[in-house]
Each structure stands twice: as structure tokens, then as C-alpha cells.
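Our collaborator T.R. sent over the components below with a one-line note: 'Predict the complex.' Nothing else. No constraints on interfaces, no templates requested, no preferences about which chain binds where. So this is a plain run: every listed entity goes in together, and whatever single assembly comes back becomes the starting point for the next discussion.
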Amino acid sequence: MSEDNYNLKKIINIFLYMAILWVVMSFSGHNPKQKPKGDQLTISFNHFVGNTVLKLDSAFYKNELGQPFTLSNFKYYISNINFKNSNGKDFTLNGSFLINEDEENTKQIIINSFPEGNYTSVDFIVGVDSLHNCSGAQSGALDPINAMFWAWNTGYIFLKLEGWSSASKSPGNFFEYHIGGYKQPSNCIRKVTLDLGKNNLKLEIGKQKNLNIKVNILEILKNPTVIDFEKLSSVTDHKNATVIADNYKDMFELIPNEK
Amino acid sequence: MKNRIIYTLFILISIAVLCNSFVIENPYFKITKKDVKLKIPKGFPKPIYNFKKNKLKPDIFILGRKLFYDNILSKDNTISCSSCHQRIAAFAHIDHKLSHGIYAKIGTRNVPALQNLIWKDAYMWDGGINSLELQPINPITSPIEMDENLVNVILKLKANKEYVRLFKKAYKDTLINSERLLKALAQFTGLMITSNSKYDKYMRKQDTFSLAEKNGLKLFRAKCEHCHKEPLFTDNSYRNNGLKMDTALKDFGRGRLTEINKDYQIFKVPGLRNIEMTYPYMHDGRFRKLKDVINHYSNSINYDEKADSSLFRIGNLNEQEKKDIHSFLLTLTDKEFLYDRRFADPNMLQ
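Returned assembly:
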């Protein structure tokens, strides 16, 4: 084949390629936007200390032992949210969400096109599953840039609770609980299941589009183990980490929607 | 008519883009598709890190190389990965027991060589890091190494015209994030594969061993192979090799992170390839010469309850045996790897 011929073929090829591209582009442009099959569902995480709405750095609270404290940082991972459907067709949201008190938009998870159904419960894990603790560099919620990651002992920090208490013996009366670990004996992944049926929170199209979850920080400090700021100002061992994980397991409850 | 204008424009833009990419390049630093092809050496096991979620591409490798040799990763722009991982030492820190990081701070462990990393299931002397991609976060954020944080690193890269260009070239869009940074570094370090030493050539019947080297190999297989398993010369396990704990460093090894009793004072078994160049030796760099290491295993093991049971198979070596093992270990030097131009500092000629 002569070189001229070859070049000609090349040019024709380029034109063909562009023609195809043009057709594809015009098609996608003319297509009407498809309507999502379901409604939008918003899951909101509402942070409380007992019955008071959490306010970082300003409000004073008291723990079970009467020790006063303030909070400066509260964030945690929620992963693998799963809605149990009575017909067996569960709706699952894979992946992790980082809920951060300091960033308003992280406290809502919006699911577009949530399929209609009679959902009886919702479950999720607090933390990041072992697969995603072993998946190398990731982005989004699992970007190590979010400062929820241990560099020297690979793994995500599942929950950070930091603040001050006059009872704490650490410099500046600070306390910080950084909880995580996906392997035994420091496994701090906790599964949470919230019953939707009991509170008449069936997620049917057109009826229920908000799921409000109350997150009570006092639970982290008292149930089942009461945390003493004087004895525990930071967590660096798996025993205390799992104690707090057992506590945060129960910090979630559904807020019934007003009718 | 309208279409024709668009086509013409398209071709003009294409030509412009093509011309732009013909920047004069030094062939020594040029990275082609062939240069980033993963070739598993004959006789090597299946790698643990396989680049499946980090497809090898010349431009990503080039970005990783640039990052590896750049001080921009450290807080005061004084330390790069290559400060402690030197090419001539198989990316260990030659003649440094412990290394000096930022603000001249001294670390607590000897810098391990970077080679055959994709066959490791964990990184660092204690195995604390479970992915090749995540390893760089540790030195970048360590207060005695680079003392930087990822937020700043990304900000610095975004503000740097050269990196904006390199990221775009590598990933075809303008996003600069930690995932891309780490994956680029993993491409560069993951391809550091050494498999062309005299030992390898002997095994492939392309070279011959002297009598001493042959004897050394025999002795090695009888006494050392249990932990330093061929062809990688490590079984990726953690053991106590009979060294008394340095009372100043008080390094508890793997126990610090697992909090399990049996893990205290044990360290990862290092691969031995290029051992001639990676001195000093051991996790705290206490032995300057290879002879000292062989003498330790022969004569000065501290047999306490922590000592690994396989140490008992070594026994006392006579002088000839020591010399033979020494000769064999020198056959693990891979000059082709040590002088591989792909891993050279791209700033050398600038």
C-alpha cells in the first residue's frame, strides 16, 4: 500500500469516527430526561446530647458521673445502609458516608429514586467494613484527607469524639476518643438495626420521604459502660476502644414523623 | 455546513494538541508503554498487588517518579522519598543505621529497601500498613519524617503548574486528589522489581557459580531459607531474630500495633536481594557489615523466650561456612535493577 493511500485511509477513519460521535451526541441530546423510578428519600442525622441539640464548643453538658464537659468534634462513618423490604427485595446503598457535626451537608444522606416498597427496618454499620479497610487509596468519604485514617496502622477511624472536661487529667483538660479497628481483637464495627414498622414509618411512595435519626452522644458515654473523663482522656488500646464501640452501637433511634 | 465547520475545528484542535505533546525529551528519562508493562519474573509467585485498580500507564508512572523525587511532599520542602530511599542502595539508605528526616530528626528503624514490593502483604518493619498505595501516607505525615498532612500536599500540588500539567496528562482531567497521588506513587514503586542478579541467572542457567557460591547457596538453603524463602528471600512473616532489644530505642515491633503478647519484639523478615548495597543491617541498623550479620546468627543469638525457633537450625558456623554464605549473598546484587534508568531521578539533568 502506498503511503498516500494509507494516509487517505487514516483521514477517512478519523471522519468516520467523528461522524459516529456526532450521531451518538445528537441522540443523547434528544432523549428526554428519564424520570427516576422512585421518590427521593432523605435520611437526616440529628445530633443530641441527651435531649438537647448538640452545639460544638459552647454548650456545657454533664455525663452520668456529673462531670461537666463541652464537645469540639464529633464525626463518624456510616456504611452499607440496607432497607429491609417485606417482599424480600432489599434496597442497599453500598459505600460509606462520613457524618460530621461541623459540616451541615454531611448530616443528610439523600437517595434519589428510592424504590417504592414496604420496608420494615433499616440497618447499617458504624464504621467501615473490612473490605474497604483493605482497598488501598480511595476517594470521597474514604479519602484519607478527611483525617479519619490511621497511617501507621492501616485503618479508618470510625468515630471521633473530642472535647473538654474539667475532670480530664490530660493537658488542657482535653479528652479525645478516636475509635476504629476492623480486625480482632480491636474490631469496632457495630451493626445497627432500626425498626421502621413499629413506629409506622413505612417507606411508601408519596407518604414518607424523610427518615430522621436521633444520634444521642450521651449513649457513647454511658451505655452500657459509664465513661469517666478522669480515668479515660484518650483511647489508645483495643479494650477501651471496643468498650466505646459497644456504647456507640446504641446511640441511634428513629424520630417518629409528625402526622 | 455547520457540521463541516465543527469537523474542521476538531481537526485543527487535534493538530494543536498533537504538536503540544512533541516536547523535546531526553531519551534516558523517556517512559514508554513497554517500560511500564508488568512482567512477572519466571519462578516468582503471583503478586499480591496486581495493578488491577491502578492501570499502569507511562504518564502515571512519570507522575509517580516526579513525586518520589520531590521535596514538595514534606512540610518545609526539604525531604523527599528519595532522601532516605536511594536508588544505588536498592532504595534503602546507604550507610545510615537510622535516618534523619525533617528538622534533622532521627527515626527509630533502619530504612528498608524498596524492591519487589508487589509481593508483600504488608509494609513497614511491623507490617502496620496493608496496601502499597497507602504506605506513603505514613512517611508524609510522620512528624519525624516529612511532618506534612495530606490536605497541604494536595493544596501545594494544585498550586504547582508542573503538577497541574502532569496530573492532567496522567489522568486526562484536572482532578488532583490523594487517591491519584498515592496510586501514581504505587505505580513507580510497584514496578521496582529485581530479578536479574547473578543468583537469578544461575537459577536460569545463564550463569555459573563459583565453588564458594555453590556451597554458600547449599548452606543458605539449610540454615536461612526457612525464613528467607526463595525467590523473594522472605516468607513475609514476623519473627524475633535473637537480637537483644536496644535499650535506647525500646522498639516493641509488631506488638505495638496488634497489642498481642506474642507479637512484641518481632519484626518483618526482610528480603535479602541487593543486600550488598543495603547496609547497615537489621531493623535498627545495628550491624554495619554483612560479616557482622552472619556472625550474629552463628555466635551471638540471644536465646530468650522471644527468639524464633528456626534460629536453632543455624548452629555455629565455621569460618569457611561464613565466607561461603557471604559469597552467596553477594550474588543477590542486581546491577540491572540498580542502574535501571526508569527509576532514575528525572531532575538530574536540570
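Summary for T.R.: Chain A is about 20% helix and 35% strand.
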